[in-house]
């Protein structure tokens, strides 16, 4: 019940943000989870649980890096498209005059 409430609340918050802000929020969550799982792995005594927590920490940081790369690609494509659109508008305006 609590998990579904948190997921729906997170979905509502992310639906009101733009793509860049939502990506940064998810990236921050991934980085937080990495540090959290690493801290937990230092505190536990069971070797099997330690390995699982370290694996989760690694997956969290890899997910964060992938999300950051996707954000950078998205931003680059967005800038390139806006530059081309501005150039086409300026050519159209100059040809009309």
Task: Give an overview in words.
With 97 residues, this protein is mainly alpha-helical. It has one domain. Helix content is 92%, strand content 0%. The chain has helices at 2-15, 19-43, 47-96. The longest helix is centred in the last third of the chain and has 50 residues, at 47-96. It is rod-shaped, with a radius of gyration of 21 Å.
Give a short summary of the structure.
By secondary structure, this protein is an all-alpha fold. The protein contains 3 helices and no strands.
Summary keywords:
97 residues; mainly alpha; 3 helices
Q: How is this fold's topology laid out?
A:
Elements: H1 2-15, H2 19-43, H3 47-96
Helix pairs in contact: 2-3
Poorly predicted ranges (pLDDT <50, ≥5 residues)?
none
Radius of gyration: 21 Å
The amount of beta strand, in percent, is: under 5%
Shape: rod-shaped
How much helix is in the residues?
over 70%
């Amino acid at each position: 019940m609590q998990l579904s409430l948190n997921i729906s609340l997170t979905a509502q918050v992310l639906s009101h943000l733009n793509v860049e802000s939502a990506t940064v929020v998810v990236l921050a969550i991934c980085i937080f989870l990495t540090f959290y799982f690493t801290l937990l792995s230092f505190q536990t005594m069971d070797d099997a649980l330690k390995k699982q927590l370290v694996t989760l920490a690694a997956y969290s940081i890899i997910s964060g890096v992938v999300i950051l790369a996707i954000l950078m690609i998205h931003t680059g494509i967005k800038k390139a498209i806006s530059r081309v659109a501005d150039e086409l508008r300026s050519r159209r305006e100059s040809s009309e005059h």
